[in-house]
Amino acid sequence: MSIPCHTFTPTYSRREWLRLSANGFGLLALADLWHRQAVAQTSARSANPLAPRPPHFPAKAKRVIFLFMHGGPSQVDTFDPKPALQRDHGKPYPGKKPRVQFAATGNLLASPWKFHKHGQSGIEVSELFPEIAKCVDDLCVIRSIHANNSAHGGALLQLHTGSDTFVRPSIGSWITYGLGTENQNLPGFVTICPTLGHGGVQNWSSAFLPAVHQGTPIGHADIPCKNAVIRNIHASSPLTLQRLQLDFLQQMNRDHLQPLGPDADLEGRIESFQLAFRMQAAAPSLMDFSDESKETLELYGINGQETDNFGRQCLLARRFAERGVRFVQCSHSYKWDQHGNLKADHAKNAREVDKPIAGLLIDLKRRGLLQDTLVWWGGEFGRTPTAQGNDGRDHNPHAFTMWFAGGGVKPGFVYGSTDEWGYYAIENKVHMHDLHATILHLLGLDHEKLTFRHAGRDFRLTDVKGHVVREIVA
Question: Which of 2, 31, 80, 119 is the most exposed place for a label (fewest CB within 10 A)?
């Protein structure tokens, strides 16, 4: 026996259909409008994605030089004096240690170095840094930095990208995306002798931003800076021949792009090739120090046995900065991770960077560049005030020190503090998101407005957090 099938067909008048579907028509129109706006923005940026763009509001700084101390310098041995450590040396830490620790530590460990007041500001600096101490009246020292990850890999990613778990664009990429660059013949973002570990290229990657905003590496941490080069700079090959080769390649890329429509990856690759060609003429002379005076080379410690390598990085940073590069990173890799041998190795590390960093500050200041160049010093985390073994300190993301100079920060100024022994940031705490928000603010960028739509939502360097530390802004 067959059962007849009956289909239920609601009867609506045309007026009722229009009433019920009106919202849908509106959303379709809005979606098309958003798509057209996105295509227009992409096309405008694709025409020249590194063209200088105005900031959201008047900027204090035009560029950033980041002096990265890879490994995690000890705050209680460098810029955060703790008399209680001397008093309580060898005693158990009276507070509660973090729930998650990278390694077990024992009792409190006094700093092997003394601190002294310097300059008119009277800021205390460890005797590890006698040359930087002479520039202390230009420094804005933040003693209350804290972050989330106690492992190098995650900590480096958070420092550079804002996230310790996901692949995100580097801060240098965000800055060039927001501001472009002042020199169209050089990259907007350069990283000198970067580390290949602990996240490697992800620390200078553009991730989902257009490829042209990725950092350009010069050498890497495993080779001396004097041997570092920018890959694919062919000074010996005639530019006319290179132009013919590039034109042929670019035509094939454009032929491939035409039926596809907007394609950020391919458009970024096309622009990267164009930039690489323009660099052929500009980069070789920039890497050549023959036009620098003997006094300048000495100022940076170049040709010194211990200071040559980082001195060359710092001088390159100044040369890139004065030619309009937006973000330059120098990396002292991977040397500051003293789980043991703290006294000898921290002293050696400091000797390698102290004179070059002071030379950079002095040179920028006398050239009139420091006022609009933000110099940023720090590592991925600090160290524990408790001992690992009898001459080491473990990782500590709960309290560490960074400092700024120039670029619109208050000079000769200390902000924030840690507890009596330097284990936790307690006063005017500055999270990594706050630090990033403040750097963008000094460059005239609102960290909540500097966004990029990806995978269905707007992303930003500070994710959904971060507050500008206005107290340090001059």
Answer: 2
